[in-house]
Amino acid sequence: MADPSSSSPSSSACADTAAHPAFDLERVASLGMRALHPQDGALLLMHFAHRGLVKEADAFLAEHGLLRVHRRVLYAVARADGLSAGQLAELLGVGKHVLQGPIKLLQDQGFIVAERDPAQHRAKKLWLTVRGARIEEQATARERQAMEAAQIGTSLDEQAGWRKILTVLARMA
Fold this sequence. Notes:
By secondary structure, the chain is mainly alpha-helical.
């Protein structure tokens, strides 16, 4: 076991803990969490920022018996009419088998329809129903509200810097 008083790279990174806003978050501070690496604060902020972004949308979806995976399907299908299940799986970075259950539930509950592609008989194209479009729109509105609230008080340059970081991370996916 390492000596806690030694000056390893991990313990020197802990000095940044007090200066990083992530460690002021109530959930983090109440647990006495500390940074083991200079990027730990940014990772914590990203985690909690994502939770803050989707919190209201997740609660809304739960009222309709849906989970975030269903949200991801609805969101993508709303923006790419006639998306195949294979294309959807590729877009979301998961295997097709992972989406079989969520797609079936969304079909059974009348949120999406799947029609055979006349050009490729084995492929099914996904479309939102009116009900699916309404649920997707309402969930997205909640996320847009969270995003807009987060941007209040930030300059256009700050927003552009934030989008640049997110773009780099997204391209790694």
